[in-house]
Amino acid sequence: QVPLVESGGGLVQAGGSLRLSCAASGRTFSIDTMAWFRQAPGKEREFVAGIHWDGGSTLYADSVKDRFTISRDNARNTMYLQMNSLKPEDTAVYYCAQAKSPLAAITSTQRAYGAWGQGTQVTVSS
Questions:
Q1: Across-strand partners of 38?
Q2: Cα maximum dimension of the chain
Q3: In this structure, what DSSP letter does residue 72 have?
Q4: Which of 30, 41, 39 is nearest to 79 (CA)?
Q5: Closest Cα partner for 36 from 81, 5, 66?
Q6: Pairwise CA distance, residues 102 & 67, whole Å
Q7: Distant-in-sequence, close-in-space partners of 41: CB < 8 Å, separation ≥ 6
Q8: Which neighbouring-strand residues pair with 58?
Q9: Residue 28 — pLDDT band, cuts 50, 70, 90?
Q10: Given a cut of 90, is residue 119 above it in pLDDT?
Q11: Does the chain have fewer CB atoms within 10 Å around its N or its C terminus?
Q12: Do 51 and 79 contact (CB within 8 A), yes or no?
C-alpha cells in the first residue's frame, strides 16, 4: 500500500489557484508532522511548507509565505496545500512528506522525512 498519494496538480495561469491533497494510509498520520516539498526542472528539491502533527503550528518558505496555506484533517488522514496567486516560478513537481519520527517538530530538513509521495505536477503559465 502506497503510504502517501498526492493529487490536485495541473496547469493554471499566473495569478490562479490550486489545492493539492496528500492522502496518507499509515496509522500514525495524526501524530506525524507533515510537509510539502517541490522540485523544479534542473533544480534541487526544496521545502515549501510544513505543519505540526497537531496542526497547531506551520512553517513556510519565504517564497510562498502569504500565498500558500498548509492544513491537515487528521480524521481524514489528509494534508492540503492551498496555493493562491500562483507564479510561473512555482512550476514544479510537488511532493508530500511524512516525518520519520512521531510527534516531531516542524523542520525544513529533508532528511527528517522518511516517507514521500510520488509527486504531482504543477505548471503555471505566464
A1: 46, 94
A2: 41
A3: E
A4: 30
A5: 81
A6: 28
A7: 92
A8: 51
A9: confident
A10: yes
A11: N
A12: yes
